């Protein structure tokens, strides 16, 4: 099977599958190859990279890829958490009170983190105080290095 990149006179690009180059040329000469976008029969073959049948190899790579993607996402999340922890003050259970004090200008604005119940978090949001609930990965619950 031959997969060809094709283009019509109106510059619409599309892909065509043929048994061989000869099959493509024969069908083109008989006007059987037309642009799916506009129906134009003036078709040019574009250069394309060769396609190799490596389906066995792709299955092995695909099996490893999800684990690698998960590890990369976990590493990115851990990095983001580490940066957040390095640039914020841990106020613990005083989080709702401290967030309000910052919001209403009672103390200097700064980045804080801590714990709040669902009810406290909802009340902060209703007051217009922007907060983000962030579940920490297990690696970040201990000492972050």
Summarize the structure.
Helix content is about 45%, strand content about 15%. With about 140 residues, it is an alpha+beta fold.
Number of strands: 5
Question: Please, what is the average pLDDT?
Answer: 85
The spatial strand order of the largest sheet comes to 2-1-3
* Poorly predicted segments: none
Q: Measured on Cα atoms, how large is the radius of gyration? A: 30 Å
Q: How many structurally independent domains? A: 2
Shape: elongated
What's the N-to-C terminus distance? Answer: 54 Å
Largest sheet: 3 strands, antiparallel
| Topology as a string of helices (H) and strands (E) | EEHEHEHEHH
Q: Report the sheet-strand fraction.
A: 15-25%
Structural class: alpha+beta
Helix content: 40-55%
Counting DSSP H or I runs of 4 or more residues, the number of helices is: 5
How would you describe what is shown here?
- With 145 residues, this protein is of the alpha+beta class.
- It folds into 2 domains: 2-46; 63-130, no CATH class.
- 43% of the residues lie in helices and 17% in strands.
- The protein is built from 5 helices and 5 strands.
- The strands form 2 sheets. Strands 2-1-3 form a 3-stranded antiparallel β-sheet. Strands 4-5 form a two-stranded parallel sheet.
- Helix 3 links the parallel strand 4 (89-92) and strand 5 (112-114).
- The longest helix is centred in the middle third of the chain and has 32 residues, at 55-86.
- The protein is elongated and about 80 Å long.
- The mean pLDDT is 85.
């Amino acid at each position: 099977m031959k997969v060809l990149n094709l283009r019509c006179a109106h510059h619409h690009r599309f892909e065509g599958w043929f048994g061989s180059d000869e099959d493509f040329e024969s069908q083109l000469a008989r006007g059987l190859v037309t642009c799916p976008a506009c129906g134009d029969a003036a078709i040019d073959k574009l250069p394309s990279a060769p396609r190799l049948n490596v389906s066995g190899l792709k299955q092995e790579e695909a099996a490893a890829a999800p684990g690698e993607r998960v590890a990369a996402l976990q590493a990115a999340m851990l990095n983001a958490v580490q940066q957040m922890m390095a640039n914020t003050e841990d106020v613990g259970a005083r989080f709702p009170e401290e967030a309000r004090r910052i919001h209403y200008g009672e103390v200097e604005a700064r980045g804080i983190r801590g714990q709040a119940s669902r009810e406290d978090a909802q009340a902060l949001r209703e007051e217009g105080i922007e907060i983000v609930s962030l579940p920490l990965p297990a690696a970040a619950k201990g000492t972050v290095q």
